[in-house]
Protein 1
Amino acid sequence: MKRFFATMIAGISCVAMLAGCGNSASTETAAEKTENAATETAETTEASGSTEAVETPAENVKIDKLTIGFVPSRDPDEIVTATEPLKELLSSELAGLGYEVGEVDITVGTSYEAVGEGLSAGTIDVGLIPGGTYVLYEDGCDVILTATRDGLSIESPDAKTWNDNKPTEPTPDNQVTFYRGLIIAGPSEAGQAIAAKVNGGEQITWEDLDGLNWSVMNSSSSAGYIYPSLWLQENYEKHITDLTHAVQADSYGNAFARLASGQIDVLCCYADARRDNEEKWTTEFGRTDSIWDETNVIGVTDGIYNDTISVSKTSQVMDDAFKAALTQAFINIGNTDAGKEVISIYNHNGYVEAKAEDYESERAAQELIKSMQ
């Protein structure tokens, strides 16, 4: 059975995805392909002026209100504050493309699903959502862009390698269109014990993992649920729902707060989440030692294709011409210093055009998750 699922996952992860296959050697190869593809895309984008020329309307099109939805992967207040400048940036870019927007409204959903449902219903026009959320709600939304992000100083499927070489640092000269999910143990006694086994080269068992208190994200979160589930399936023929002690967090910030307090022993997150919570660890979360000293990686997922910018299929303001203008506007924003500062809240560094086929492996992952429930 384990061989069967491992074979399935290895095949699935290679389908039209530029990140991660089913074992260490193939994952590294796929990651290299992803980086090369991201570089080629960036070079092509730069050479061609980012996108095909956007046809500016003969007369300015007036849009009373444009609603943008963000998923709550960070503290909602933090997201709202950081993205406030996006309103003016986006309005300005769209004005240059022939669209006068009266108001840009930025909201943070109560969950990933809430943003997907808003896109489907047309109450949200534009969503910055993970690939997993896009795939779940693609009947109601179209993907237009994929985020690029700084690569990291550590790129390995091996947990101990992450621990031996911490802290993790960004590599701005290396832009990638994928990231990994990590399972991170905290400062609790049980968290330290499982980390010691990993760092000592011991094989951790399902019993070891099942004895821990876990924090996971909702079921549409790629790094917080889907890919950790695939990691458990591949290595232990188990699933997140098989864990005896697993609680769902409403944001990664809250999950790290619980990790710091010892309420949980391990959490599932994206690879650079510790960098995002490094300062809070010794301030808001009340720890004395640094997050790098008190946390360790015990599991590493396959590569995950980056977040999307997706648009509603049912929005009253959305048509092909406006989608093209939005695509160009966000690419332009991502090419400016002010824009990069805004989108860095999600660790985005810029955007490249996307198509639905880019997320084929995410669809396959979702189907596999459904089959395991």
Protein 2
Amino acid sequence: MKPFTRFASALTTGFIMMIAVFISCNKGNLPPVATMTAFPTFGDTSVLFDFNAEGTTDDKNYPIGLAFRWDFDGDGVWDTEYSKINAIAFQFKLPGKYNVTVGVKDIDGLTATASDSVEVYGKNNNIDTLLDPRDGNRYRIVNIDGRWWMAENLRYGIEISTDREQTDNDTVEMYRNPHSKYADTVGGVYLWLESMNYHINEPKGICPDGWHIPTKPEWESLFLPHKDLSAVYYRELYSIQYYGKNGSSNLNLDLNNGAHRSYEDGSFEWPYSVHDGWDTGFWSSDSRWNEECWKYHPYVCWFCSIDLHLEYDYWWGCEELMASRTSLTSYLSVRCIKDN
């Protein structure tokens, strides 16, 4: 065979093999690998949820050829037609748990789906009132995750002037913020020991019968992240919105009322007015003993939606604030939670 003929034959054979490989690969085309994430994984009906399928891949490496459609309520009926939109936002009108699905189609018509679930809260209408038989005060209460919480700050006790100390004298004493226009809901402030009725191991404190000052786990249950750890940061921001003033939970933790007495000269001050929101502190019935200071450090929940501040921790150690006398010189609000 002449060289040119051998070359032509080899070229033809190679071309045929390339076609065969192409046909073989084409026959083995695989469906897309669909992925989808939801953020956040929970929120109320005011939240705009983001659904992202940008991570979807195709074995042919033709992402530009992929088309997407969306089913937001998980009813099996597609809410959109196929389009190039691989990330979309959606706001749910009704509370509930939704299984959101994205459908993906490649240029050969092969399809795949991916799903993620979100939980949507509505406005909490599980509201009632609590009548404190000790003084006739009535409080609005709300049920959150099966537990009843006071939605107003406690205002039980005898109001005393700020030039007097709260002491263990068999009488519950409180201070009232003279700058507050919302005295009936903001309530009084108490030393931690006063709020515990000087019985540090009894969570009932100064709450009505059948109620107690929330423990550390009970406070934290309002704010701990969902199973999706990627939503930890959003959980905190959402908690501020959800539990804050006029939030959908109706718990209204922005009813702030905090004060401080100087350890040096005994002077008393209300650091911020009710509108500033910073001193929204609530006592817990839990505490820990500090061996260095020989003092108990109560657990505190700080809450402020004005500057997006949320914190829950024990009072600081001895080295921080003059032997940590804060639990003996600071006055915070009390919320009660119903016994199980």
Protein 3
Amino acid sequence: MRALRVVARVAGRQILAAVVIISASQLQAHAQLAPPGFDTVPRPPGTVGAAPPGASLVAPGGPTGATLAPSTSPLQLQAPPPPTTQPVALPSAAAPAPAAAPATPMVPAGQVALMVSARFGRDPPAITGGLYWRIFPEKPDQNGVMRVVREERASAPVFVLPPGTYTVHVTFGLASAMKRVQLRSETVREVFEIPAGGVRFEGRVGDSKIPPGQISFDVYRGSQFETGEKRPVAQGVATADVVLLPEGTYHVVSNYGDTNATVRSDIRVQAGKLTDVVVNHRAAVITLKLVNERGGEALANTAWSVLTPGGDVVKESVGAFPKVVLAEGEYSVVARNEGKVFNGKFKVEPGVDREIEVMAR
């Protein structure tokens, strides 16, 4: 195991991301045989597949079924069946079992066996879970659609097919690989190289972990400093979710609450590694109260507006005890109740959750 400490400066603030790299076998322990969250059925960003307790899998966008990535041929593909969520256990990270080579099956006359497997690159070990295989014919049908001939979610499936030329497509999270394979008379063995890794996020304020329901993460390709319009490859990722991505540089946007407590940081995904990223926020949870006297009962049906010193609205809400997560800094607040307007000011210090009382007078 090896640990890194990554420090970046964004908008004048220092952002610390503690990154822990673990082995490919430990990554595979989190990548159970994927539910069809890893197939080409479009799913809402941030949806979660099956995984061990405390670490679910996220299908971040990925191929949509419109084209056969990464092929340059503009082929239409038949969409796979609707997703299921049945998990299948893999060997534990502490004692990974070697993948057994599948035995050559009994092949009927006029058929050929195709044995496939995948690994994280030219040298890393085999991928033992989270794979989705599809076999396509050489030519589209009369409607121009490449329809699936066979599909499997095993780590090293064996396909028995008539002789001919096929396209084999395999996905691992957002990463994928493709080969055209010709079957004649003898068994064919193919190994696919998928340079992909996993990333998992956690948010903290100081030494305190932010509860999972209060924070989410969006992942984008490339560095945050690159120009141009970008769309997230994974959106609304929850704490402890494992996102499987092609090897490369990404930047993560960490959203604590739904106001201005946002941190951006670059990360590096390595093939065959699970990267744990800890994002440190400088923010606090503030509860607002409109009272007639100090320590008094909060007045119901109060409309609230939280503003920056420059007058920009940060958050609006209605209620007696609205809670808002705010980044470190100074704020003003406006409370409206029964046609009257009341004002107040307060300061947010990192990790200091507190109540702010606005006097109704």
Protein 4
Amino acid sequence: MKKDCFHKNLHSDFPASKPAGNIRRYCKYRLGVRNQRGILPKVLRFSVLCLVLFIQLACNMTSIPGNDSSKSENSLTIVSWNVQALFDAEENGTEYQEYTAAAGWDRDKYQARLNMLGQAFGKMDETSPDIVALLEVENSQILADIAQGPLEKQGYKWTFFANNPGNSLGLGILSKYPFEQAKAHSLTYYEDTTPRPVLEIHIKIQETPLVLFICHWKSKLGGDLATEPLRKASARILLRRIREISNDSPETPIVIMGDLNENYDEFYRQTGQYISALLPDDPQAAEIAGYQDNGEEGGTEGGSLTDTAIQIDYLILSHNKPPKAQHFPEDAIVFYSPWADELEEGSYNYKNAWETIDHFLLNDALFTQSGWNFETCKVIKEEPFINAAGVPFLYNPRTGLGLSDHLPILLKIRMKN
């Protein structure tokens, strides 16, 4: 939960068929229309990302030689893990103070940490996960060092990394399957830029597509309400791309994953005072977002939509399988959240209280009994990920003990005929 930095930004995308190495294409989206309720005028419903400028973003996609581990293409195990400030041994001026040579950080400590992380991978499940999203990683070389070092025999041949220029930490992915596409998106909201990009990864197995959005949203450092616009800005990116993907291929399964720095029940924790980036499918949330519920059981069928309301900067969460809006319009974009069902308690412990800020959010295509379908989800809450007190065993760069201040969360999906 270190302080985020604001930097200029970007939209970067390229197909996975390009050769390994640094490949860059840069754009920047700037939005400058304010509304206190978080609702935009009707004329801007589908044109909120209006100004495009070219600017640099650090991206790297790599195909790594190595052995394929044995895996079943009928099932897929995906892990999301904030690994807490994973820096290498090279200094470039953006490191946290405790990861500098002056503080005693060196290559031996870096390598020891990679080895511990590699051992932890083997304790996440019966076999190592097929896909792992790693958050708070300094650069793409670290992903390569993991894949070619302690995880060399696990078959993580494809990696992708992105970060905003000048930021200390970015996010990346390790995969046993090739990428059809790999993109990175970010947004400038007035003078502030989302501190980290949103990664968009397309994978196809047995001719069945899967789209992953990997996120690390703005922290609450600076105040919950004051930082909410940047989390909502990241939600804007997701909604824009999800609409575009759904227009082209409505049945595409989509998973949003990562550290969203917002609890699944954030709206209730904030006593329903404002529109948060994650909203429950709830009458009060629908009303404050500008929708009128007809009050009948079953949702807004026959309900009304105000002239200015549109779902543009918040994700609607449901516990229904498949997720479907009950209190928002039928065409609302709704995701299933495993929290309070499959997932319990929390993945991050702050001031002795559990928080549910690490997420898997699944669209309705993962509950159709064809193609990829949801099977199970869990928080990996066991040694070596927890300490004797039963909370995340945070990493200490001075002693070299611990793993991370977040617990990994694991999702299993299975191919249905």
